[in-house]
Amino acid sequence: MICQRCGENKAVIALQQLNEAGKVESLYLCENCAANEALSSEKDLVKAMDTFSEVALDFLTLLQKEENVQKKVVCGNCQLSFDEFLQTNRVGCSECYSAFEEQLVPIIGRVQNGYTKHVGKVPAEVERAEGVQNEISHLQEKLALLVKNEEFEEAAIIRDEIRALKAGGEDK
Amino acid sequence: MNVFEPRLSSWLENAGDDDDVVLSSRIRLARNLKDEKFPIYEQKEEIVDQIAEVFDDSFSLFKMNQISLLEKALLVEKHLISPYMMNKSEYGAVLLNEEENVSIMLNEEDHLRIQCMTPGLRLFDALEAALQIDGYVEEKLTYAFDKQFGYLTSCLTNVGTGMRASVMVHLPGLVTTKRIKSVIEAIRSLGFVVRGIYGEGSMPASSIFQVSNQVTLGKTETEIVEDLTQVMEQIIMQERVARTTLKQKFHIALEDRVFRSYGLLMNCRIISMKEAADAISDIRLGVELGFFEHISRQKMNELVLFSQPAFLRKEAGRDMDELEEKVIRAKVIREILGDK
User: Fold this and answer.
1) Does the beta carbon of A106 lie under 8 angstroms from any beta carbon of chain B?
2) Domain boundary among B89, B124, B144
3) How high is the ipTM of this complex?
């Protein structure tokens, strides 16, 4: 439901008011408009406060639910949940490291004497890919400079080199 | 390939640096394939074939579901596979080279466990051999790797380099002079782990210990190996000092203990593994101190290896009960020791 006052934000509060005919009428408002409404109307202030505390309570519950969901975080690749990891202390696949990154980093720090960053050997393929990436960025800088200086012939050559490097990377 | 025959692997047969104290060095690299579930949760037989294809004829493949329980146990006693692989890994396999100084376990806790062994304190040689195999594999297959966490492993204690460097040492001098406890504490405070000979969770037996790195992340492979080598050099020196002290101050008592153990092994008719291992440890010390001219270090390694349960069953050609095992053990030991 959209806020009946501003017509833009999502309504979070139903404000019950007596209308001119003496009937109870619900006014659906977003948080901002509800706050303004509460401040503008002295007599509705208490009612609005009540509504606000209800909202606050809902919000807290929602936060707690979020936290529970976080505890039940599951790796999208192998379907291992973080709870299951805690039972075996073994992750299920390489994707678990990104799925549980937030939870794993402190544990890794604890078992690895505070270290959390790899500095050792890198697979040759990764090293090559990094090398190509560096070369591409280097050539792109050069290209930008050539274009700026209107040296278009030279720029075309560099452009083709970049294309070739990118295509080479895709092959792998 | 006669890996199941009673013979020493090359790293137990040949001489190595500082081998009066150090029995062997080992480097293990844990690796996993990208996009595949880790084998601790799901084992795929085709992964074994996929990896085995990378290796040429110089390696023999043994699948756990195609060899007998006795053969698995022989491989465990030779330290070529882990007890975990023997007991838990249905689609596990191991690739072994002829010299038996390279063992590549497949579908253990990780997809690959590349292990290279050398005699004596030669961690750098083992590292070089392991990295060469690793480089060979990564040309053909894509590893699970992350820039932040390095090589991704099933257990967080292996992540990063995936490397465990370990050294097997015989420290009877430090044990007898009761200095072993403080030495182990000092090793631990430097970030290294001390274990019994069958790795994690096993009890130290017969003054033989395994020292390895605890941390696999935040240090390079070379740094880890350098640090461990330095620690080992300290331990070796202290063990030698302890042995000299024993020889000088308690010569007759030491000689008595060594020769009693020799007498025991030469004459007993029933012996348990623990009793044998302790006596072998004494004789090994005697050999290093020059008490026996006719016994070689290799013979000590043969005694340790061939007096284990699976080798005794292999020797006898049948299964046996506990008492019979002790009888056969006594006989096998007498034969090895008496054979000059």
Assistant:
1) no
2) B144
3) 0.84
